[in-house]
């Protein structure tokens, strides 16, 4: 799962060896803390997502529920303070807009 929140972008996948845990990965060191402030990410420089942490599924569930329950913005892109991350999200938005409006689409 790719997840974009105001404070960052993470990739969340099932842990290969621990069925009740998820691997939360990021390309920026602060993006994991944006969703999971108590997490202590490790660094694997050779990985495409060098920052990562293993978290129990219930911890991720609670973090996502808390994010949604406390969300106050009515425009995601405008909620992003980090300018380079904002600009990247605008690029993703544009890519998905083109995808939705491709020939045969909307």
Count of alpha/pi helices:
3
Report how far apart the termini are: 25 Å
Unreliable segments (pLDDT under 50, ≥5 consecutive)?
none
Category by helix and strand content: alpha+beta
- Sequence of secondary-structure elements: EEEHEEHH
Q: What strand line-up does the widest sheet have?
A: 1-2-3-5-4
Outline the biggest β-sheet. 5 strands, antiparallel
> What is the count of β-strands?
5
Strand content: 15-25%
- What's the mean pLDDT score? 95
Give the secondary structure arrangement, pairings included.
Layout: E1 2-5, E2 8-14, E3 21-26, H1 31-35, E4 42-43, E5 51-56, H2 57-70, H3 83-100
Quick take:
With about 110 residues, this protein is of the alpha+beta class. The protein is about 35% helix and about 25% strand.
Keywords:
106 residues; alpha+beta; 5-stranded antiparallel sheet; 35% helix; 24% strand; globular
Structure description:
This protein has 106 residues and is an alpha+beta fold. The protein has a domain at 2-74. It is 35% helix and 24% strand. It contains three helices and five strands, in the order βββαββαα. It has helices spanning 31-35, 57-70, 83-100, and strands at 2-5, 8-14, 21-26, 42-43, 51-56. A five-stranded antiparallel β-sheet has the order 1-2-3-5-4. It is globular. The chain starts with a strand and ends in a 6-residue tail after the last helix.
